[in-house]
Design goal:
With 503 residues, the chain is an alpha/beta fold. It is built from 16 helices and 24 strands.
Length: 503
Amino acid sequence: MTALTDNIAKLNGFLKRFSENGIQNRIAGQDVAGAGGVFQTHSPVDKSLICDVAHGTASDIDKAANAARDAFPAWRDMPANERRKILIKVAEGIEARAEEIALCECWDTGQTMRFMSKAALRGAENFRYFADQVISARDGQHLKSPTLMNITTRTPIGPVGVITPWNTPFMLSTWKIAPALASGCTVVHKPAEASPMTARLLVEIAEEAGLPPGVLNTVNGFGEEAGKALCEHPAIKAIAFVGESRTGSLITKQGADTLKRNHLELGGKNPVIVFEDADLDRALDAVIFMIYSINGERCTSSSRLLVQDSIREDFEAKLVARVNNIKVGHPLDPTSEIGPLVTEEHFNKVTSYFDIAKEDGATIAAGGAAIGEAGYFVKPTLFTNANNKMRIAQEEIFGPVLTSIPFTTEEEALAMANDTAYGLTGYVWTNDLTRALRFSDQLEAGMIWVNSENVRHLPTPFGGVKSSGIGRDGGDWSFEFYMEQKHIGFAMGNHKITRLGAQ
């Protein structure tokens, strides 16, 4: 038995429950059918039916929001150490079911086992990290003035909505839900309709760990129905969203009437800038990893390569050879590096850029074609002879597609790097320290890595500028979003109070 056949056999065992029972909404600790009936989720690997999924609508969101509101006071007031213990048990539950989570996520999303085998463990790490911050989450400052002793504290904002994407749904769900729960908030989670399986596993694990009913509720459905209702519901005090910039704009509008606080983690068209003095072998590895791993379906992917003229020809030649050698295959095969794109709709979007590139005058140096008909597989693709004004350089393709653009001077590279509506990440490769400092200071991005790929460190702020988002995740920045600042001033008894109406 090969590793692939072994993984398929294990997956079939995990899928049986879904094929028999489908995926229900989970509200106040109970399975709830969708008011809109069901919709179906299919695997991008072979387009086969996975299961029926509860079609949640506004009425389901209302039930979940009310459940979160009712559960909020007790969860908010639970001793911090007790909440911490529950979150640690959630992390342990995730670790115990890591293989199940990974296999289901691969089948649901098309992501490869090579990367998803670690996704569940990263989710557990998110819960462990924020569990350790619970004790100090409400800590504030002592700000003494001549007449008052001023202190600050933080309190959880209330029930929150979490809307997560389809690309790496489990890890990103934990990224949002763990700090929300750690802060003392209750949650209504609306997973992406294209990949709903592991959201069900997460709420099961959380409840088995002792999370009280109503603290975490899951409602499946579509953005225009369930998502919109969540953003508009008056009981929901904040929305944490990961997804497209266009959807982020809609969420802002939908929450305006109830003055929702929003944290929006949106799209990117991130540059990786390679100067001639860089360690070119390491830069090549990082460039390839940051666009072709995770099927290119991640917001932090380095989808624009800005490469200095003097090294461009040789660097692109090495790129072509490596890209053509990337293994596209079944996501449960441990040797596969790229799997299928998540849905037919997304497949059609990504492949449409092959013609767009040619129409704009770019060269397809590698890839540029679909693979087979069984699933939504595409060849990893490299566009060369491009410029920064082309659609392939400005629009988020969100697939295994890299656009290479030459530059001559540092000033030219900076202008091109900043010439985009997005500003999520940037990657700078140079051994000139002064240039690295100067360039990163002027680069319009929320996160920048110098001589490195994206290496996530949980205490650091994660988020973008311009159309890439509003707000920051990570460390204490997460608590700033899920909690309200409170100031209390204690008079020292010796300041003068102005007397009105006194004779």
